[in-house]
Amino acid sequence: MTVEVKICGLSTPETIDAAVRGGARYVGFVTYPKSPRYISTETTRALGALVPKTVIRVGLFVDPDDALLDEKLATGALDLLQLHGGETPGRVAAIKQRTGKPVMKVIKVGAPDDVERAFAYAGVADRLMFEGAEGTLPGGNAMTFDWTFLSGRTIPLPWMLAGGLTPGNVAEAVRVTGARTVDVSSGVESSRGVKSADLIRAFLDAVKAL
Q1: Structure pTM?
Q2: Based on the structure, what is the number of domains in the chain?
């Protein structure tokens, strides 16, 4: 079983290298200033230039206005936009039209019915991400949710599983949910907001072993 991996919240050339060499399909850059994983526009530009064309560069946004989208996209460092806020289907459609980029909408899951909210985005988003509903910041809260909420479900778009994944639990998460793409951030950090190249490699190795 082939499972693709997204490593989110990268901020250094060393961790970019670990992700790319280890076989990550996606790398993520955080544009949200309140996040400990936030990087500046110039850092986004510099790191994005290190990523080969075979790897998809993802920008994590939280209810972005048009000016922020324009600023970050001007770096040429983003291939996919990940929307982590309260963006409505209408706003998602508007962002896609304005930017010409594919969009992934994050759905926070705290109860089985939350999965159903994803269906509202079926006609406008290109991908979905499911993560735990708890936590004070978008992404990187190390919070899992009940993976059985996704067991046996037919989801209308390609989707990623996120929230509290680590090298130690990713195999079980994939077994329960059937996820074909997984996203990790805090689970490969040595301290809050600081990625570990060794943990990135360990996570990617754990996925390869599935």
Answers
A1: 0.94
A2: 1
